[in-house]
Amino acid sequence: MAVMTYREALNLALREELKRDDRVLVIGEEVGLYEGAYKVTQGLLKEFGPRRIVDTPIAESGFTGVGIGAAMVGLRPVVEMMTFNFALLALDQIVNSAAKLNYMSGGQFNVPIVIRGPGGPAHQLAAQHSQSMEVYFYHVPGLKVVRPSTPMDAKGLLKSAIRDDNPVIFIESETLYNIKGEVPEDPDFTIPLGQAVVRREGTDVTVVAYMGMMYRAMEAAEELAKDGVSVEIVDPRTLMPLDAVTILASVRKTHRAVVVEAGAGFAGMGSELSAVITEQAFDDLDAPVERVTGVPAPMPYARNLEKAKTPSKERIIEAIRRVLYLNGQGNGSR
Amino acid sequence: MAVMTYREALNLALREELKRDDRVLVIGEEVGLYEGAYKVTQGLLKEFGPRRIVDTPIAESGFTGVGIGAAMVGLRPVVEMMTFNFALLALDQIVNSAAKLNYMSGGQFNVPIVIRGPGGPAHQLAAQHSQSMEVYFYHVPGLKVVRPSTPMDAKGLLKSAIRDDNPVIFIESETLYNIKGEVPEDPDFTIPLGQAVVRREGTDVTVVAYMGMMYRAMEAAEELAKDGVSVEIVDPRTLMPLDAVTILASVRKTHRAVVVEAGAGFAGMGSELSAVITEQAFDDLDAPVERVTGVPAPMPYARNLEKAKTPSKERIIEAIRRVLYLNGQGNGSR
Amino acid sequence: MAQKTATKPKTAAGDIDPGLARRIYNDMVLIRRFEEKAAEAYALGKIGGFLHLYIGEEAVAVGATSAMRPDDYAIAAYREHGHCLAKGSDPRRAMAELYGRIDGLSKGKGGSMHLFDKSTNFLGGHAIVGAHLPLAAGAAFAVKYRGGDQVVACYFGDGAVPEGEFHEAMNLAALWKLPVVFICENNRYAMGTSLERALAETEIWKFGRSYNVPSEAVDGMDVLAVRDAVGRAVARARADGTPSLIEARTYRFRGHSMRDPAGAVYRTKEEVEREKLRDPIVSFRERALKAGWLSEDDLRKIEKDVNDLVDEAVAFADASPEPPLSELLTDIFKEK
Amino acid sequence: MAQKTATKPKTAAGDIDPGLARRIYNDMVLIRRFEEKAAEAYALGKIGGFLHLYIGEEAVAVGATSAMRPDDYAIAAYREHGHCLAKGSDPRRAMAELYGRIDGLSKGKGGSMHLFDKSTNFLGGHAIVGAHLPLAAGAAFAVKYRGGDQVVACYFGDGAVPEGEFHEAMNLAALWKLPVVFICENNRYAMGTSLERALAETEIWKFGRSYNVPSEAVDGMDVLAVRDAVGRAVARARADGTPSLIEARTYRFRGHSMRDPAGAVYRTKEEVEREKLRDPIVSFRERALKAGWLSEDDLRKIEKDVNDLVDEAVAFADASPEPPLSELLTDIFKEK
Ligand SMILES: Cc1ncc(C[n+]2csc(CCOP(=O)(O)OP(=O)(O)O)c2C)c(N)n1
Ligand SMILES: Cc1ncc(C[n+]2csc(CCOP(=O)(O)OP(=O)(O)O)c2C)c(N)n1
Ligand SMILES: [Mg+2]
Ligand SMILES: [Mg+2]
Predict the structure, then answer these.
(1) pTM value?
(2) Tens digits of residue pLDDT in B236-280
(3) How many C-beta neighbours within 10 Å does residue C18 have?
(4) What span, in angstroms and rounded, lies between the C-alpha atoms of A250 and B183?
(5) Do D114 and A125 touch (CB under 8 A)?
(6) In C66-164, which ranges are E strands?
(7) For a designed S-S bond to C120, which of A325, B213, C88, C260 qualifies (C-beta 3.0 to 4.6 A apart)?
(8) Angle between the D223-240 and D18-43 helix axes, to the nearest 10 degrees?
(9) What Å distances lie between residue B153 and B13, B14, B172, B221, D191, CA to CA?
(10) Cβ <8 Å between D210 and C210
(11) For residue B318, how many other CB atoms are within 10 A of its CB?
(12) Distance of alpha carbon A281 from its chain centroid, rounded?
């Protein structure tokens, strides 16, 4: 174990996999000479050279397609989206090529590619550069989607993603690159895709949250602990495949659930979690599942508006209180 | 009133709006000389000429961007996607330009554009040409999304979409173009966006469905009527903004809900409807909301597999029986 | 940079050996007959969805493939029966795929637009116009990465040129010197849209200048001219990874798809009839006879063998069962 | 097609009147001072997010705008303070937008990358590289549709050229003869990526040949040369809608953004220092003096007035309140 930042954990995972397997390469804008817009690929060009670490022009659809084509014939490219916002320009390649080639070819051409980069709300980057992007991917059959909240998960899940034989969408966060945490240095350490984790044990209510929202839920939990409310927090880590078993086990224990997402909310991860929990644990629920989501608006630039756009600790606390009927309100209000 | 096909109703709506407002134009692949890959624009080039009916090369991002730019300065383009699958190539323009310009400019530049064309499962067109596309749009703040199930809705809603000052995603269906129905010929007839409609009155269970799935739900309802089960069917018509009021009123009456969608299901329209109904009508529900969705796989070509991919009448009937506890099964199974 | 300024496409000279003549004639006739049968099957409802016929354009795939090695890669759009067969796929499995049967190349899951054959290095069958150009560059990238000397043939239509991915793929291939030969099958129409209504520059080979890649136009109805042009491009690609752009001028004898049978709205009967006089199979047949590469008997024999093979393919497809329903849920992900 | 084959960009000759010289000098100094102040405010945390400075490139926006009419349109990427100010926006409202305040051009909702000003026909401020090129073609389409004679100036970086939308927009504008002038601000780097590492053809003006549009390279540090080149392009566009591609060779004196202050990883100090000797403001100042267009006093006066105006803009922005929280939910849709 060593303490390192989320950024360093990603960098270490890339380094280990590049060492381990010559078929692995990194391709994207500014990943080489510039060492990454967010420095996740720091030192890689120096260590592995331009054959393995490939700088590209600004042509997301083009270089993503190049990665997919290379994967079709045996390479294992890790394509960096400088920020995931730009993946929209490559979405057709991701959805209609990467996700479907194995199926359309009857299993002849699988596509072992990882598409990674930061996504989600950032700091005053405004509407085009600050949006929750997983919503474009987890509903697509043939894609796996990862959102790692901690340095350890970042390393363990990225390694599993690179070793997976299928396309994996791996969305990091600008706002987490500098957080620190314990990370196993063992190059054989991986975390399997599709396993949620209980971040905090509790007995009164289950909160499902990931990335920045998971940390905000933690703060909410600490504050509520003072009032004797015991909150359990489950982090899905992988959104597709979703580990419903772990989430449902927690809900069956607490009988109450709040799902949090930074996204706009309409038909988002919160909707799916709410639906699954209600279907599978209806009789165990003492209150309807509460969704806490971002405000359904584009991301504004102004600092105060931006702050109001994503769920606050206060809104999470309110929702928890609502499912516990602690604030005299009726159900279901959002 | 006149009886006409869904295709003719769309064509009439376009003709009326082109006549009514010179700022309205149609732009897309094969919309002019070829009169539309699915003949929705039949006769328009002849009647309105090449200034109003604009054939484009295959450059979805380019011509969609042209439509958005033209809308920024006052035109009201109707952009046809030959099929909505190709909208993925224009998704960045739709999401990052059309949906956000009014917000980012503080209300200075709204984008009155309609992007229309057929989407959803078709007949043996396989994975890249047969997929439910609304899932890419309804979660995007700044977009409105319409899915018209009948010729009358096709006409009334398309006219409202063209007259709307905001970007509207209007997704038709290859499989409905030939259905016939009563359509008002009055050029002032419109159907406001954001209003659901009760397609069939019933008392035992509410089924929410649209497009092909709505018709399949009708068949299921007729069959169940024989067993004395009274099914109410609500068609949202507009997915964003969603008319939750009408849907909830029905559920509060029947106390049971089944939501049907052709899409893969994960975080889809069914998830949102299930979550909203459960949140808003929890105490009125006698059973958890049931979702009937497409199988989470790419669309296969083989006829028998394709048939098994989308919800069948039988699966809808089963789900209805489940929420009514008529087949001795427990809740929540899918 | 060797950039032919002649806008008049080159035609081939020179002699070839009988073995090659036999193979070329066989392959062109095979593709023609295969598709004529497929059209019949479509009319009978045995094939569904979209069916795009390559009839009239056979010289491009056959000429190009004849200039390449079996271990070279090929990738095409949705009008790809010809490229798949030229690359050596079993016509029976190809036909079974069109029928949507379990013995199809893709177990019936892909259909006419999505033929794939790993055993021949045929990378498919792609139905999003322009999308397979970056994939071709990617396969070439992998070849170079592995230090191999294979070349990738990427076939696409004139309709793909206005797409952004044409530009992105050309630039990346040129910038990184990826061994790919971009072969534009210019049949002058993208569905109902003629070249003049789609491109500000209708001499497609000229786009290569923007990427400093060798480019030329060639008579796509002359199988040997195509073979020569592609041969030059393949030699460059194998030598040092230089990509090329070849504009093969050809013509689609049938409609865009079976749903556009006549293909008559956007072009005149006269034009179609005139073009049919350039039938690549007929002209190669005459030439092979005149040059003495093949005798009338040789040609007849080839035609009969091909007919038998295609009849067998149809019978095979007809006899093959539908995929079991379990196939709906397999291959979504590759399991270890 | 008038296509300059000279790869050496043209420089301007000829005389101009003092009024124009005053305006040009004023506008270039205004942009420079505005951004120097913005950089200070960023350091103080008054401006957040990304801040991309145009310092060193002022001659392009000012020269081009000086060749156009007030009712012509302009659109740019995220490095657009200069274009917005050159088009005539109130510096106070522009600065307030950078501050994220309610008196900003976009009520503080857009920020530095998304300046818009309907009153000056400035169509924004777009942060997806390449995405605003089709929008520019669309505005030009609307002008032509309405039978107007306005022209659209579309500014974009060298980094946008490898994007597919560059190709799609150029082809559509050329095919449909849309009155747009594509002005590539070639500062030789896209973030840390130099031209040579991004394009197979580094003489960007040459891409115009693929679309048969008039194209030329111009010294982007010479405001009058830019004015001349754009003037020629605007005349063509106004006459019959002919679009043009102009490659303005310029240089970014600062880093890519405030997060890349030095901008030193990918270029040498020497190169930056050498380029700074081409400062468009310094050279125009000298030229205006030498030519007698403006006296030392005139120039000093302009500089002082601009300083006062920018100080006022900063004070205005500082004093402007944050948008009320209700603004979070307004403008998502335009209500009738
Ligand atoms: C991105 C995209 N847009 C539109 C279509 C619909 N479409 C299918 S084929 C075709 C014409 C393509 O013409 P061309 O590239 O010249 O190939 P050809 O059919 O002539 O062989 C179009 C527009 C598509 N499949 N993909
Ligand atoms: C589609 C897209 N990809 C990547 C980015 C990230 N990015 C922002 S600016 C930039 C460099 C653009 O360089 P250039 O076009 O030359 O403009 P300059 O910054 O030099 O003015 C990049 C890669 C983006 N904003 N949009
Ligand atoms: Mg064609
Ligand atoms: Mg640049």
Answers:
(1) 0.97
(2) 999 999 999 999 999 999 999 999 999 999 999 999 999 999 999
(3) 14
(4) 53
(5) no
(6) 73-76, 122-125, 152-157
(7) C88
(8) 110
(9) 11, 13, 11, 21, 50
(10) yes
(11) 19
(12) 25
